[in-house]
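A sample follows:
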Amino acid sequence: MGVVSDMIGSWRCGFIGWALLVLGWSPAWSGTVQGTAFYRERMALPASYEGELPGAGNPILWHVDLLPEGRYRLRTTHVGKPEPNRFDDIGRWTRESDSGRIVLRGGREAPIFLLPVDGGAALRKLDLHGQPIESRANDRLARLPAPALIEPRLLLTGMFTYMADAASITLCVDGQRLPVAMEADYQALEAAYLEARLQPGQPLLVNLQGLITGRPSMEENRPPQATLVVERFIGVWPRETCGNTLAESPLRGTYWKLVRLGDAPVVASMKQREAHLVLATDEARVSGSGGCNRLIGGFEIDGEKLRFGRMASTMMACPEGMEERKFLDTLAQVERFRIRGSHLELLDATGAVTLRFEAVALK
C-alpha cells in the first residue's frame, strides 16, 4: 500500500506541475505542502478573470472564463454605451510553450493574446501581435475568487443531429457537443433538418442565434449540463461541414468546393460534376467547374484583395443543377477573400459574402 500511495502521490504532483506549465505558472516552491495546495487552488479549472480595460472612447469590461479541455468563454461590455453593448464569444485556448502566452481563438477574426502574471492571479492583455501594450492604463484581468461562468448568447454554427427524440449539436468553433433544448425556435430547426437530411441521424450543418446555459442533468447526482437554447434558427446547409477550424487552408493549391451561392445552398445534379475552383500556385491561373462546364481564367491578388479575370468555359448544355451563369457573374464581382479554417469566403465591394467554398482533401 505504501508503494501504491507513493505512486499516486507522484502522479498527482506530476499532473499539477503539468497543468501549471500549461497556464504558464512556475511552481518554484511547490515542493512544500503549503506550496502544492496553493498552486492546486490557482491552477484549478474552470477559472474566471475580469477587468476594465481602455477602449475607443469608453472603457470595456472584459470577462474571460478558461474551461477544461482548452475551451473558453469571453464577454466584452462597452461601459456607458447604449445596448447592444455586450458581445460574447467562445472558442479554444492554447498556451505557447516558448512565450507562455495564452491564445484565444474563436469567432473573432484575430486571436486574443493573454499572459499569466503574478503567479496566475491575473492575465495581462497583450496587443494584436502578442506584445505588451505600452501604456499606463490598466492591462490586467484579475482572477475572481471563484468561477463565475457567463452564459454566452451569440451566433453559432455546428453539426446538428436529431434521432430517437434526442437533439444535439457539435459546435464548429470549439468542438463541444451540447444537447439542444426543445423550446423557443427549436421547432423551426427540427423541421428544416428533417426536410434536408438524407437518412436518420445524419449530421447537418446549421447556423442559429443561441444561448448556452446550464440545465439540470438527466443523470442523478450530476451537476447542471451546458445546453443550447435555439433563440432564432437561421438556416441548414446540407453540403457543408465544420471542416478544420484549427488550421487555415491555403488560398492557392486547394480544391475549393462551392457550397453556397449568395444566401442559398448549392444543389448539384447527380449527372453533373460539382462546382469548384483551384487557384494555381505557380502562376495566376484559376481552373475548375461551374457545375456543368469546365472553367479557366486568371486572377489578381494583393493582400486580402482578389479579383478574377474573364472566365473561359466549355459550351456543354446542362439544363439541370445549379445556376452556372449566376456563379460566373458573381465571380466577376469579387473584390476580397477571407479564409476561416477550411472555408473560403469571397466578398463583393460592399463587404457582403457572395460565395462560400469548402476545402476538399483530394485522394
